[in-house]
Design brief:
4-stranded mixed beta sheet; 244 residues
């Protein structure tokens, strides 16, 4: 009798859990042109993308992607721009048009609403950047970070989180973070500069090497409710890709 009651209760719990998971819904697909050291890469074609989010969230979001394989959910009707190099790819989706000349040496970064996704390879000239992030938030990989830095600039690493960053670990290779307003932290390891609004995102180690995926975003206050939706979709995309 007790076993039957337990089984029935377990089944109800599983059904509730399944019903709480959002089913896949369609959002507009936006292809993003990319620039790099060789010829520009044209925006990939598409009309829609299927993503596991709620219909309510889907009303405000689109899926932006480059031809190099980077993609992210972001508010609809924003502008996008991709960059690629020998050791990293980046995607920027912003409220205002993004001029490629902004990324010239000596130019400043973004202080307004924008989302940046970057994929940095640890066996390239980006190894020092990867090492710096690992040293801050991935304690299980500290020896690897030290090895990367020795192969790179050779400068000493700063180990441990930024004092004011809020970190939420999903596992030893994935952490969600929030860098407060007017503060240097994990969020400013990007083209997003400190401003009157915080920066939120996700840092992930992917692949056997491993390499670094970094999501950094600053949304307008009225869209802050979309932050967790964007983060969770980014995490799911990365994990699915990492398994293949």
């Amino acid at each position: 009798m007790l076993l039957a009651l337990y089984a029935q209760t377990s089944l109800v719990a599983q059904e509730k859990a399944a019903s709480s998971r959002p089913s896949a819904v369609s959002v507009p697909f936006v292809g993003c042109r990319s620039d790099g050291p060789s010829d520009p890469r044209e925006a990939p074609k598409g009309t829609s993308a299927s993503v596991p989010i709620t219909p309510k969230a889907a009303e405000s979001l689109a899926y932006y992607a480059t031809g190099t394989g980077l993609g992210v959910l972001a508010p609809r009707s924003w502008y996008c721009y991709g960059m690629y190099g020998p050791g990293d790819d980046s995607l920027y989706v912003g409220l205002q048009p993004i001029d490629g000349s902004r990324f010239s040496i000596g130019r400043s970064g973004f202080v307004g609403p924008i989302i940046e996704v970057s994929h940095s390879l640890s066996n390239t000239g980006q190894r020092s950047h990867v090492a710096e992030i690992i040293a801050r938030v991935f304690p299980a990989y500290m020896a690897f970070a030290t090895h990367l830095m020795e192969e790179g600039t050779g400068e000493p690493l700063k180990f441990g989180p930024y004092p004011k960053d809020a970190l939420t670990y999903r596992n030893n290779r994935m952490v969600e973070y929030k860098t407060p307003a007017q503060t240097d932290g994990l969020g400013t390891h990007s083209w997003l500069k400190k401003s009157v609004s915080p920066i939120e995102g996700v840092a992930m180690l992917v692949g056997p090497t491993p390499d670094l995926l970094l999501l950094s975003m600053r949304l307008p206050p009225e869209l802050n409710g979309l932050t967790s939706v964007i983060e969770h979709q980014f995490e799911g995309d990365a994990e699915r890709s990492d398994r293949h």
